[in-house]
């Protein structure tokens, strides 16, 4: 019986790698008091891998007219941990859309990303140039768990924007993204370790 249990746990570590994204309501319960500080352009999700530890990154991509036009940063080695058994993490994202470098200069968006593992946490800040004409903003996030595999590069969270002050309902599907005027998208990229 012990031999069979050992084989089963080893096959999970050596099997094909998958990452499951599970949405998190970051303002549920007592955490609702944090919403005024983090803002409405905030969200969270958990990532958990099965199999061999993946080389996963979270890229910040800028989109215009339904296509990726530039990258504005990346967080690499998402699953880094000194503890081999630590295969889950939580990602929290908050975007401050009212940040200006100085009067008369280009509008900037400050993006804060917090990552929490069982063994610790880290906080990163990115500053992204933003065209002032994009005045309407809306969140794009997952509502159901999704599973990804090696060689996937998929948007998992973001903000869409328009210059018309009208926002169309959208999601993270390729068809929906192709209709966006502008967006900041977080793309999960999984490669070989």
The radius of gyration is 18 Å
Give the DSSP E fraction (strand runs of 2 or more residues): over 45%
Helix-and-strand structural type: mainly beta
Report the count of strand segments: 11
Distance, first to last CA: 32 Å
Topology order in helix (H) and strand (E) letters: HEHEEEEEEEEEHE
Give the low-pLDDT segments.
1-11
Tell me roughly what share of residues is in helical segments. 10-25%
How many H/I helical runs?
3
Major sheet summary line: 6 strands, antiparallel
Main β-sheet, spatial strand arrangement:
7-6-5-2-1-9
Note the overall shape. globular
Q: Quaternary state, please? A: single chain
- Mean pLDDT comes to 86
Topology:
Layout: H1 2-14, E1 18-24, H2 35-38, E2 42-50, E3 55-64, E4 67-75, E5 88-100, E6 107-117, E7 120-130, E8 136-141, E9 146-149, E10 153-162, H3 174-177, E11 182-191
Antiparallel strand pairs: 1-2, 1-9, 2-5, 3-4, 3-11, 5-6, 6-7, 8-10, 10-11
